[in-house]
Hints:
It comes from Saccharothrix xinjiangensis. This protein is α/β, with parallel strands linked by helices. The protein has helices at 14-17, 61-69, 96-108, 125-132, 158-171, 192-201, 217-225, 243-254, 267-275, 295-304, 310-319, 339-349, and strands spanning 20-23, 26-29, 32-33, 56-57, 81-83, 114-119, 138-145, 176-181, 207-210, 263-264, 323-327, 332-335, 353-355. Helix 2 (61-69) packs across helix 3.
Amino acid sequence: xxxxxxxxxxxxxxxxxxxxxxxxxxxxxxxxxxxxxxxxxxxxxxxxxxxxxxxxxxxxxxxxxxxxxxxxxxxxxxxxxxxxxxxxxxxxxxxxxxxxxxxxxxxxxxxxxxxxxxxxxxxxxxxxxxxxxxxxxxxxxxxxxxxxxxxxxxxxxxxxxxxxxxxxxxxxxxxxxxxxxxxxxxxxxxxxxxxxxxxxxxxxxxxxxxxxxxxxxxxxxxxxxxxxxxxxxxxxxxxxxxxxxxxxxxxxxxxxxxxxxxxxxxxxxxxxxxxxxxxxxxxxxxxxxxxxxxxxxxxxxxxxxxxxxxxxxxxxxxxxxxxxxxxxxxxxxxxxxxxxxxxxxxxxxxxxxxxxxxxxxxxxxxxxxxxxxxxxxxx
Length: 379
């Protein structure tokens, strides 16, 4: 394996050396790290490896597959999977052969799990042919496009992603294509022209999802140290997406000509719609999330969704080391569970699982409080 290096793990933080991690959109497999694309807002800042520009493999492809399917949280045909979404771009020339090989090995096992692949790099017709040749996996290519023109923030030409989106959509037969319109940031890429361009690109996708910026301490520090314009006055644990910006996007979408893809607020909602399945995250319990969904998709999600039995949930929560606080019509509320264990329960139940110490405020769609009305303190 050309990328494999005995020194590949040297100097890496423990969380990067762990090649399988649970994230909201799926069990994430990251056996290759390192990326030269230099996007200023990249989550690689959070793992301390933004300076690692050359992709290096931490394991062989075979070892990566085994690590995934033997993971204690992996469930065949159920667990959504993400490949190489944390520390590299899967379509880089040095990385892509390994991505396609791992997809092939998973497909050969007869697995029908959702598999998400996120890229802003080049997708060629031959890549599409390889993806269409997969017979079992439900693969979604999420093509990241921001339209950011400040090359200090994003040196990669957004035209590359736009062309990849068109190529993938034209050639997709079995796999699906989602426009991953992100990050949209006030004052950076939210002009009327930017919004019109994003909506126009959605014509080349089976669904589109729009979202904001992770602006954690590490990313803010990078912006400040490089003299980049700071998009917000403060950092936040969740993605920042102001209320006014969302309203502008939805108004622009409502006034566009026919032909564009349906917009969604959540990645799993767009993926599910593109494949004609119910949302595996159970977002339909958060009713205000669904006010932009097609009636057909809303019905599909409602038919697959139900409030779980409290006794069953309590046992599941206890088994993974937490405590059940309660169950509402919107979510299971727990204490003592990290994100990985909450997402494992969420995907198994098809029902939202929230941490009691990190409340989800109504109508904010799980986003940061920045840019939204202040909620009065309880008296």
